Amino acid sequence: MPVSASAIYFLNLRGDVLINRLYRDDVGGNMVDAFRIHIMQTKDLGTCPVRQIGGCSFLYMRISNVYIVTVVSTNANAACAFKFIVEAVALFKAYFGGAFDEDAIRNNFVLIYELLDEIMDFGYPQNLSPEILKLYITQEGVRSPFSTKPQDTRPPANATLQVTGAVGWRREGLLYKKNEVFLDIVESVNLLMSQKGTNLRCDVTGKVLMKCFLSGMPDLKLGLNDKIGLEKEAQVKARPSKSGKTIELDDVTFHQCVNLTRFNSEKTVSFVPPDGEFELMKYRITEGINLPFRVFPSIKELGRTRMEVNVKVKSLFGAKMFALGVVVKVPVPKQTAKADFQVTSGRAKYHPSVDCLIWKIRKFPGQAELTMSAEVELISTMAEKKSWTRPPIQMEFQVPMFTASGLRVRFLKVWEKSGYNTVEWVRYITRAGSYEVRC
Amino acid sequence: MNADNRKGELADLKTQLRQLAGSRAAGVEDVKRELYKKVISYMTIGIDVSGLFSEMVMCSATSDLVLKKMCYLYVGSYAKVHPDLALLTINFLQKDCRDDDPMIRGLALRSLCSLRVKNLVEYLVGPLRTGLKDNNGYVRTVAAMGVLKLYHIAPSACTDNDFPATLKGLLIHDPDAQVVANCLSALQEIYTLEAASSEAALKERELLFGRPVIYALLNRIKEFTEWAQCLVLDVVSKYVPADPNESFDIMNVLEDRLQHANSAVVLATIKVFLQLTISMADVHQQVYERIKAPLLTLISSGSSEQSYAVLSHLHLLVMRAPMLFSSDYKHFYCRYSDPSYVKKLKIEMLTAVANESNMYEIANVDVAITREAIRAVGRIALQLYDVNAIVDRLLQFLEMEKDYVTAETLVLVKDLLRKYPQWSHDCIAVVGNVSSNTVQEPKAKSALIWMLGEYSHDMLDAPYVLEGFVEGWAEEDSAEVRLELLSAVSKLFFKRPPESQKILGAALAAGIADAHQDVHDRALFYYRLLQQGVEVAECVINPPKQAVSVFADTQSSEIKDRIFDEFNSLSVVYREPSFMFLDKEHRGAYDYSEDPAAVSLVSAPADLVLPSQSLEANDNDLLLSASEKEESRGTASNGSYVPDFLTYESSSAPRSPSPPLQVVANRNSSIGSAPVARATTAGRTSQAVSALGIDDLLGLNLTFSPGGPSLSLKLNSKPALDPATFQRKWGQLPIALTMDHSFFGQPLAALSGPQPLLRHMQENLIHCMASGGQVPQFKFFFFAQKVESPPGTGFFLVECLLNTSTASANVKIKADDTSVASKFGDIFRSALTSFSLA
C-alpha cells in the first residue's frame, strides 16, 4: 500500500500544531501528543526519521522551522511517504512564492488546507503537480512582499479537463509573442579528500533546469556530449564521432515529460515541455571529474595555547573563468580566543558561533593560487586531555560557465507545427555540494 | 488567551455569523471569509468551536468556492462529534452534489463521504452512485475514493449496493487514469479487509489482480501520475507471471521507470524486478546489477530522510548480495553534514561491503569507520573457512597500538578463537604482548581477561596479568569485567593451581564482598562449588568447549525473506516483518487514551516481547550468553548441577538474545531462588509423579504424556520450534479455540512467578515459548506438537492469560491442524486442572 497516511501534522519547533489534517479514523486524536512526548521532547529527535509508537509509525522531517509529521498505521511505503512530503513542500513553495516556514504556513493556512484536500484523498496521494493544481486552486497565496512574480489572473478555460488529462503537464492553447527556451546545467561537486590529498570520494550530481516560454505543443530534442548518446549517433550516421570529450553518465533520471521509450531506443532526450520552469533531468557522474579547486591545508598545534593555520587554495579551471562567492571554512577548537590573519585576497574572520575561521573571496580568478594564514590563540583549559578531533575544512563556491563533469549541450532543437523560430539560451554553473578536505 | 476571553470571542463570532447569514449585501462574502478563517484557525490550534455549528451551516449558502471549502472542512471535522447536527449539512451537500460545476460536485461528494457518521449512510449511497457515473473525471476520482470511505463506515452498505463491482468496471474501462488509480486503491483495500473474513473475497482479489487487469494497467502505465504509478507497480509486484518470458515482457515495459525522477517510482519498479526474478537466480543477479546505479543515485539525491529510507533498502539488498556493492564502497563514505541516522546506516553499509580488497581503504578513513571495519573484517573471518590471511591482518591491527583499534580487535580475536580454537597459538602470542594498561573499554577488557583465563596454560605470564587485574578490583567500574575476571581466575586455578590459589582467594573474597548483585552471587556460587570439590567445580566452570558454529546474533533467514517480500515498505526500515509491528499481539498494551501521561506506558510490558525481537542485543549480552551456552552444552551430561547453573546464569544476563528454550522458560526466576531451584529440580521427577497422581486415579497411564489412550491426540515430547517461526505462525493462523478456565480454591494466589506453571506444563509436553507479567497478571505463550507430524507442522500455539486474584485463565489456541484443536484444548484444560490440584 503506497502511503495511506492516516494524518499529516505541521508543527513548529515548540510542538504547537500549525496545521493538522486527519485523513483516516484509524489513529487517535492525540497522536500529536505521543509525538511530542516521545520524540520531540527526547534526545531521539534527530536520531531517526521513522519512529514507532504504539503501533503507529511516525515519519517526520524538518523543513526550516517546521516539522511535518505523517502518521500511518499500516506497513506504509516509507520512501514514497517522504517523497510525498518533499513534493508537497515544493508545491506549497510554488504557491507562496519562496520560503516555507512557520510564518508562511500561518499566513496561508486556508490555502494549505485546500491543497491538502486535493493532493491526498483518504491517505492516498493524488495529483501534486503545481502546473495543474494552479488551474483550479486559484486563490493566490499571500506572497511575501519581496516576491515580484507577476500575478497570473487568467481564469482557466476548462480546468477540470486538465486535472486528470493524459498530457498532465502542459495545457493547450499557450501563446507567446517571443518564443524562448532557457536551459541551465547546474552541477554540484561533492568531494571528500584525505589529509594526504587523495580523493576518498568524488562525485557530481547535476541537474538540467529549463524554463520554457513556447507557444502551442512544441516537441524538443536535447543532445549532450554523453557517451551513450554519441555512440548511438555514430552508429546511426555511420561516421566516427567527433573527437573531444565524451562523458559517461552513471545514472540519469528524467522529468515525466521525457519520452523514456525513445531515450532507451534512440538515446535522445525528446519531450513536450511543461510551461515555465521545471527540472528536465538529473544525473550522476563519478568518473573523470575536473575538480575546480584544490585545498592544501596545514594546521600546526604549537603547544597548548597556539595554533598555526595555513590554507592554500588553488583554482584549476580555465584562466578566463572565475569563481564567485568562494568561502573557505576552517574549523578551530572551541576554546579559541582570537585569530590574526594574513590573506593574499578576500577577507577572513573568526566566527565563534560556528567555531570556524571563515575566509571569503568574492571573485576567484582561474589558474590562481591564494593563501590564508592565521595565528590562532587558544584559552588553556584544565580538562583538555583529549586531543581535538578536527572536522574537515569545508568550501563553498560557484563557477559559472564551468562544468566539473565536462558535460556540454550539443544541440537543443524545437519543433512546433506552426514552425516558429525560437531563441535558446544555455548556461552552465558548478557549485560546491559537500566539498570537504580533511586536515 | 484565557478561557473567558476565548468564550467571549466565540460568542462574538456567533452573533456576527448570525447577522451575516441572511445578508446579501455587497462585500458580505469577504467579511464571511475573514470570519471563517478565524474559526478554522481556532479549530487548528485545538479550540473547540463546535458550538458554532449551526451558524456555520446557515452561512454556507454561498457561491464562493473558497468559502465553501472552509465550510466543508469545518463540517468534516465536527460531524463525527455532533452527528445530529451533521444532519443539517446533508441538505446543502446533496444539493451541491447536483451543481453544474464539476469542481463543486466533486468537493461536495468528498465532504459528504468524509462525514464519517454511521446513521447518515443512507444519504450517501445515492450521490455516490451518480458520482461514479458522472461524465467528469474529477467527480469520478472523488467517488471512487468515496466508495472506500463508505466501506470504512459501513461495509455492508458498500457491498450491498454492489459498489465494488462498479469499481471493477471502471478499473478496466475508465478513460481517466486517476479514476483507475483510485479504483485500484479502493478495491485493494476493500478486498484485503474482506479477505480476512471471507474466502470468496480472497478469491475475488486473486481474480481481480490476475493477468487481464495487470496487463490493462501496465499498458497505460505512462498515463498515471507518479503516485498512481507507485500503486500500480505495487500491485504488479504481487503478480506471479506464468513463465519467464512473461516476466521479461513485464520488465521490458517497466525498464524505463528506473529513470523516473520520482524516487518512489524507482523503488517500486525495483521491487517489481526483484519479485519477478526471484526464482531465476542468474537473472536475479543481473537485476541487481541493473538497479545498482539508480539506487546509488537515490542515496545522494533528495533529503536525508529519503536517503535514510533508501539506505535501509540497500542494506537489505547488501545482506542478500554482499558482493554487489563492494566496488562502490566510496558512495557510503559519510559526509560531515549527514545526520547521525544516515551516518549510522552508511557505516553499516561499509561494514557490510567490506572485504579483503577494500578493507584497508575503508579502515583508513575514520575512527568510527575503523571500528566498524575491524568488526567487519572479523565478521568475514567468522564466515569464511580460509581465515589465515584475515587472522594475520587482525593481528596486525593489534600491533598498530592505537587504543580503539586494540580494543575492537581484542573483542574480535576472542570471538574468532571461540570459533577457530586451532588459531590459539598464533593469536595468543600477540595477545600476550598487549599491555593490559592500554585496554580501557569494558568489552575489550573482558575479552582480554577471557582469553587470559581460557589460554592460561599457553601464556606464561597469565597469572601475573590476572593478578594485576584482581588487585585493581576496587577501581574496576564495570561489573561485566569483574564477572569475567572471576571466571578467568577460576579457570586459571584449574590449570595452574599452585601459582593461582592466592589470586583465586583474593578474587573470591573481593567478589563476595562486591556490592553488585550478580558479581556477589557468582563469587558465592563458585565458592560453594569449590567447596563441593574441585573436580565438580571444574566440570561446571571450565568444561571442554565446542567451537561455536553460528553466533546467535545472525537474523534467521526466514525473517529476512519475509522482510524482502515486503520490500519498499516500513518493514525494511524497522528490519522486522510487518506483523511484528502491526499486530496488536506484538505491540504491547497501549490504547490512545486522552491522557498524555498514559502515553509513557508504552514500553512497560517489555518482558512480554518474544525473545527474537531483541535481535539487536548488544555484544555485551552476547558475550555472556554465548559463552554460557557453550558451557551448558559442555556440561549437559554432567549430572544434576546443570539445570540450576543454567537458571543462575541466565538470570545474570537478563537480556540474552534468543537463548535456548529452557533458558527462556526459566529466565524470570529471581536470582535469590537459585539454590531453591536446585532443590526443586532435583526432586522434580517425584513432584511430577505426584502431580499426575490424580490422573492415575482416573485410570490414565502414568506416562509423562497426559494424552493417554483415552484421548486420541498425542503430543511430541521434544517439539522444535524457534521463536521466529512461532511469531510467524501466530501472526498467520486464525484463533481455533478460546476458552476460560477457573481454578477452584487452588494455591494460585501464592503464585509469585511464572515458573511453577511452566514446569508443570512442560511435564505435560506443552512447552513455553515466552512468559512474563507480575502478580496478579501473567501471560504465557505455549506451544506443543502433535506426535509423528512432519517437521514444521502439527503445531499448537497457545496464549494464556492468567489472573491469580480472580483465579481464572483466558486461553487462546491456534493450530496448524484445526480439526484436532478441540482435542488439544481438552489436553490443555486437563493440564491446567492438574496444576491447580498439585
Describe the protein's topology.
The complex is a heterodimer of chains A (439) and B (838).
Chain A: E1 7-12, E2 17-22, H1 31-40, E3 50-53, E4 56-63, E5 66-72, H2 78-96, H3 102-107, H4 109-119, E6 120-121, E7 124-125, H5 130-136, H6 159-163, E8 180-193, E9 199-213, E10 219-224, H7 227-237, E11 251-254, H8 260-266, E12 269-271, E13 276-285, E14 293-302, E15 306-315, E16 322-331, E17 336-343, E18 347-351, E19 356-365, E20 369-378, E21 393-400, E22 409-415, E23 423-437
Parallel strand pairs in A: 8-23
Antiparallel strand pairs in A: 1-2, 1-5, 3-4, 4-5, 6-7, 8-9, 9-13, 10-12, 10-22, 11-13, 14-15, 15-20, 16-19, 16-21, 17-20, 18-19, 21-23
Chain B: H1 3-21, H2 28-44, H3 53-58, H4 65-78, H5 83-96, H6 102-113, H7 121-133, H8 137-153, H9 155-160, H10 163-173, H11 177-195, H12 199-208, H13 211-219, H14 226-237, H15 244-254, H16 263-276, H17 281-300, H18 304-320, H19 340-353, H20 359-363, H21 367-383, H22 388-399, H23 403-419, H24 424-431, H25 442-454, H26 462-471, H27 479-495, H28 497-512, H29 517-532, H30 534-541, H31 557-565, H32 570-574, H33 578-582, H34 584-587, H35 619-635, H36 641-652, H37 661-666, H38 674-682, H39 684-691, H40 693-697, H41 723-732, E1 737-742, H42 755-763, E2 767-774, E3 777-785, E4 795-803, E5 808-815, H43 821-837
Antiparallel strand pairs in B: 1-5, 2-3, 3-4, 4-5
